[in-house]
């Protein structure tokens, strides 16, 4: 873990360079409100603390990452449960050495990190190694707040192969009432979601089961049939 963090830290200037080179492109990449349902949001919901970007990666970038994810996972068995009991029927791997990935996959990961630096982080940042996760169709991701022991103020993810609904709601473990309200995010293949601020620290996130209904703020309702799903998770390192 320590070695991997150093590698990503050494690449920080490269990420800043990519951020500058692609700044104009990312300026035109704005979150899509149609993928957010905020009509039942809690009283302290901050719309700046979450975002969903539609088709953030291109088809070829996504296909490269999917191939790398499946290659890394092919000899792993699905786990029935996680040590913190929030996820079932999944495979997960931390990528400490990204040089093992295809060049296009590395570019895609840098593209995401550059965007996060440019648009969602207020400080120079060291990123933790990315995690690849493979969810079976029946997998459960239960309400939880990601540990803050090592990671910082941002959690982000790219989704592949299957759409799903992520629900955010106040955390009971932090003394909040989960029935205060909720915010739903529609995560389509190649989309990028970002959680910061209140959505990172005060709200749990979970994936709703297949067949759940996503209702956009304009009143449109869509049933989401979830199938096998892949994701890449990004987190920044905790300061200090």
Q: From N to C, what is the helix and strand string?
A: HHHEEHEHEEEEEEHEEEE
Mean of all residue-level pLDDT scores? 87
Q: How would you sum up the major sheet? A: 6 strands, antiparallel
Distance N to C terminus? 16 Å
How many helices in DSSP terms?
6
| Gyration radius from CA atoms, angstroms | 17 Å
Helix content: 25-40%
> Which residue ranges are poorly predicted, with pLDDT under 50 across at least 5 consecutive positions?
1-10, 19-28
Indicate the proportion of strand residues.
Answer: 25-35%
Number of strands: 13
Q: What general outline do the C-alpha atoms trace?
A: globular
Structural class: alpha+beta
- Strands of the biggest beta sheet: in what spatial order? 2-9-6-13-4-3
Keywords:
disordered N terminus, six-stranded antiparallel beta sheet, alpha+beta, 13 strands, 240 residues, single chain
């Amino acid at each position: 873990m320590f070695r991997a963090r150093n590698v990503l830290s050494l690449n920080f200037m490269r990420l800043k360079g990519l951020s500058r080179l692609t700044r104009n492109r990312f300026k035109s990449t704005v979150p899509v409100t149609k993928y957010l349902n905020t009509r039942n949001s809690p009283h302290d919901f901050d719309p700046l603390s979450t975002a969903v970007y539609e088709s953030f990666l291109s088809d070829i970038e996504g296909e490269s990452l999917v191939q790398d994810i499946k290659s890394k996972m092919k000899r792993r068995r699905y786990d029935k449960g996680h040590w913190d009991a929030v996820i079932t029927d999944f495979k997960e791997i931390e990528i400490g050495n990204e040089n093992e990935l295809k060049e296009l996959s590395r570019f895609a990961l840098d593209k995401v990190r550059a965007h996060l630096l440019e648009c969602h982080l207020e400080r120079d940042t060291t990123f933790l190694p990315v995690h690849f996760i493979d969810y079976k169709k029946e997998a459960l991701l239960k309400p939880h707040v990601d540990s803050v022991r090592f990671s910082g103020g941002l959690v982000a993810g790219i989704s592949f192969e299957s759409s799903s609904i992520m629900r955010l709601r106040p955390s009971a473990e932090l003394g909040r009432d989960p029935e205060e309200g909720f915010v739903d995010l529609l995560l389509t293949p190649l989309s990028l979601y970002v959680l910061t601020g209140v959505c990172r620290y005060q709200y749990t996130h979970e994936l709703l089961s297949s067949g759940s209904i996503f209702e956009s703020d304009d009143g449109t309702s869509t049933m989401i049939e979830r199938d096998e799903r892949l994701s890449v998770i990004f987190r920044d390192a905790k300061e200090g």
